[in-house]
Amino acid sequence: MSCINAKPTAFGSDKFDANTDLINLVNAAKAGQREAFDELCRRHEAQVLNLAYRKLGNWDEAQELRQDVFFQVWRKIGQLEHAEAFSGWLRQIVARMAINRGVRRRRLTLIDHEVLEATIDCEHDAEKALVREETKRQLHEQIALLRSMDRETLIAYYIDDNSMIEMAEKFHAPIGTIKRRLHTARLRLAEACRDLIAC
User: Fold this and answer.
1) 3-state DSSP call for residue 88?
2) Is residue 80 located within the same domain as residue 124?
3) How many domains does the chain have?
4) CA distance 61 to 23
5) Least packed by Cβ within 10 Å: which of 124, 137, 181, 187?
6) Widest pairwise Cα distance in the chain
7) In a domain, 159, yes or no
């Protein structure tokens, strides 16, 4: 089973299997040989999945991250200078991508919480829980309807995980301006969502 969809390039006529030396596999994968990369995936799949699960604590997210990691490895393996460092390099990619995924998940939860607190104050019974989930769905629809500056500011901070410095560079504006824009965008989103449901 292939880890990702990509076109192989020629790297001799070698067949790669469990007996192939790791360094030869890495070098072949760097040269674009798909069979070598697939063998690397097979050898490291369990390691990547287990590490992802330890970092995320969620099996479904760990499986999704595994796919993302191997796609990133395929894209970046040409930048790996020393083939013998592959295993450590792979672990670093897993750890970094798990952290990024966790941060995005917490920030999406945070924005849901902030806006929902401004729009509903209901008891947490079963019926209200269903209403809350529907409100979350409508919340994300409202984000898409915001004017471009508000929408881009919220997405850059909460979804793309940009720091204030990165956002200042991206929007060509001082950090103070970015903070004001973020605050304003939150208020406008809360106002847009205020009439979504009533207790």
Assistant:
1) helix
2) no
3) 2
4) 30
5) 124
6) 69
7) yes
Structural domain range at position 153: 120-193
Shared domain for 131 and 77, answered yes or no, is no
Residue 172, Ramachandran bin (φ over 0: left; ψ between -120 and 50: alpha; else beta): left
For residue 107, being part of any structural domain is answered with no
Mean pLDDT of the region 37-44: 91
CA torsion 104→65→72→20, rounded to 10°?
Answer: 160
Are 188 and 150 within 8 A, CB to CB?
yes
Token digits for 141? 């629809």
73 CB-near residues (< 8 Å, 6+ apart): 40, 90, 93
Question: Taking Cα atoms as reference points, which of 142, 182, 151, 146 lies closest to residue 164?
Answer: 182
152-165 average pLDDT score = 80
**Which of 78, 10, 18 shows the shortest CA–CA distance to 42?**
18
User: Residue 152 has which token pair?
Assistant: 């881009």
pLDDT tens digits along 104-148: 665 555 555 555 555 545 444 555 665 566 666 666 777 777 788
- Tokens 């970046």 sit at which residue? 76
String of b and e for 34-51 (b: at least 16 CB within 10 Å)? bbbbbbbbeebeeebbeb
How many angstroms separate the first and last alpha carbons of the chain?
Answer: 51
| Secondary structure letter of residue 81 according to DSSP | S
10 residue type, one letter: A
